[in-house]
Design a protein that fits this description.
CATH superfamily of the largest domain in chain A: Periplasmic binding protein-like II
Order of helices and strands of chain A: HHHEEHEHHEHEEHEHEHEHEEH
CATH class of the largest domain in chain A: Alpha Beta
Distance between the termini of chain A: 41 Å
Largest sheet of chain A: 7 strands, mixed
Number of domains of chain A: 3
Strand content of chain A: 15-25%
Largest interface: A-B, 24 and 24 residues
CATH topology of the largest domain in chain A: D-Maltodextrin-Binding Protein, domain 2
Oligomer: homodimer
CATH architecture of the largest domain in chain A: 3-Layer(aba) Sandwich
Number of strands of chain A: 11
Helix content of chain A: 40-55%
DNA sequence: ATTAATTATAATATTTACTTATTGTTCTTA
DNA sequence: TAAGAACAATAAGTAAATATTATAATTAAT
């Protein structure tokens, strides 16, 4: 593939000729020459350079944008052609929400590794929005998330049902009461931060049962929330995935309440696009076979 | 840009190494070497070749499809970069219906030529469907047609109102009568072939006024139809654009009939896409300024 | 001013690309 | 079935491009 574009892209990303040369295993003058050749060919300067800063200019921005797309297409072409002869292989860029990334993805990756060691997965964690927009900009190949994302380029398919339970520490007097909305509203709730899929479920739950809790504590991770619940700090609503071990060890108990468990779907999100290499097929199948889905 | 892909594309199109070499102004062995190098790089054969046939195989099809897109993107990039510094320039591929292509486009091209001689237009003629699908496959940059085309990738904007009149030769006794649907149905009608925009208007006209003509003659071009009408062979319904000269020379007369002239819009169709170079802007503006539009 | 960090230039070496000449196929046709 | 035509592949040499090393030039920071 056209080396000029590759070199330009690297320089534009690193904003540094010498470092780009290193990464590309070539000498710095070679990089200078490539850039000069490309600028000559296009008849326009692409990089404003002093010895302190290298910056793409307006023309450089255009070339960078197109270059990204051109190189991506070339790579996709290589992958599809290689797929014709070889086992599924190559990079597979997965995006996942926190919950899925922490509790579900590890086993998926293990299965993938076992049967298809030539596939090299990488994982980005983010909320549904993040994953969706990374999909649109082709920064990941597939997403596993807790919500849907509306964009004409993206399709979402449910692959697993998740159940969320209200949990408390084992010491709470609450455990002996009959659980009513009023009882729940009287408790301290520990919930995830704004933007989290689990937070959203909790808010919908409150709304549905007309609960406005006395005290809300927001914590940034599921792990911390579980520790808070264990310590008797308050109660929470969490996915069964995240509390399995604590239940087994009897550190945390589920509360019986009509309307729980709350069910929600996990979704596979992917680009509505013609590019569908073996590696992606294999991973998607593995995910969708994981449990009673659809 | 990557010469390997360019050479491959040319060979795949021409199905012939030697002819590709000629067109690319290089020797035949050079072409052989490029193809071999590309096949080596991708690790797969792309062309099945005997000395009678050269054919792309499955892998070759993938490379051809991606190659087309990659080279197109590279060209678009070059055009946009050049637009930053230079006057509108480069190839501009226009698609037009027969009527527009014959009667309207020449003056557009003349205007374009006058002010922007660096733009090199090429014209493909076809019906709305043809033009629409050529737009989708990026074989043209803009279309001027008589109908709309529904595809998420394509947008249509009206740019001019067209009027169609019923015409007859000057000798017809018809000219002295009061024109009613019954009178029209009694005449011989000369109409365009199936698939033509004008044909469609005529059919709608018949339907609307419950006319089923005694005799229909289908002819393949507007020019031939006009000659038929002049010769008294029958009457027709044609765009004012096409009959201007014949009216002036009093070879053909318009019939007065309630519901004529029939109005329809001409549309600019373009790809709903980020690529919008100066040459395309200039041409579109010229077209849309051409008459009272929108 | 000196130094450090950086890109550009020059000269040279190496690799790749391209050419001509030739060979080896396969299909056609006489 | 032999000869010829049409074609791609190969070989060998040449031209062109792409690298490298060494060095210069520029700028910012100390």
């Amino acid at each position: 593939m056209d080396q000029h574009l590759i070199v330009f892209m690297k320089v534009a990303q690193l904003k540094n000729f010498s470092r780009a040369a290193e990464e590309l295993h070539m000498s710095q003058p070679a990089v200078s020459q490539y850039i000069q050749a490309l600028e000559r060919e296009l008849g326009v300067k692409l990089l404003e350079r002093t010895n302190k800063y290298v910056e793409v200019n307006k023309a450089g921005k255009i070339v960078y944008q197109y270059g990204k797309s051109i190189l991506r297409e070339y790579e996709q072409m290589q992958t599809l052609v290689s797929d014709l002869q070889n086992e599924p292989a190559g990079e597979l860029r997965i995006g996942a929400s926190y919950t899925i990334g922490e509790y579900l993805l590890p086993s998926f990756l293990a299965l993938l590794q076992k049967d298809y060691s030539a596939i090299i997965p990488s994982v980005s964690i983010g909320n549904t929005e993040d994953i969706g927009s990374k999909l649109v900009s082709h920064d990941i190949d597939i997403g596993l998330v807790e919500g849907t994302f509306t964009h004409k380029q993206v399709i979402s398919v449910p692959f697993q049902i998740d159940r969320l339970y209200i949990i408390s520490s084992i010491g709470k007097s609450l455990l002996k009461k009959r659980i009513t909305p009023e009882v729940l509203a009287a408790e301290t709730w520990i919930i995830r931060e704004e933007g989290s899929g689990t937070r959203k479920v909790v808010e919908e739950f409150f709304e549905k049962h007309h609960i406005s809790p006395n005290r809300l504590i927001t914590l940034g991770s599921t792990q911390t929330i579980k520790e808070g619940v264990e310590a008797g700090l308050g109660i929470s609503l969490l996915s069964e995935l995240t509390i399995q071990k604590e239940i087994e060890l009897d550190r945390i108990r589920r509360l019986e309440f009509a309307g729980t468990p709350i069910q929600r779907a996990f979704y596979v999100m992917k680009n509505h696009h013609e590019f569908y290499p073996k590696a992606l097929q294999v991973f998607e199948n593995l995910v969708r076979r994981s449990q009673n889905s659809d």
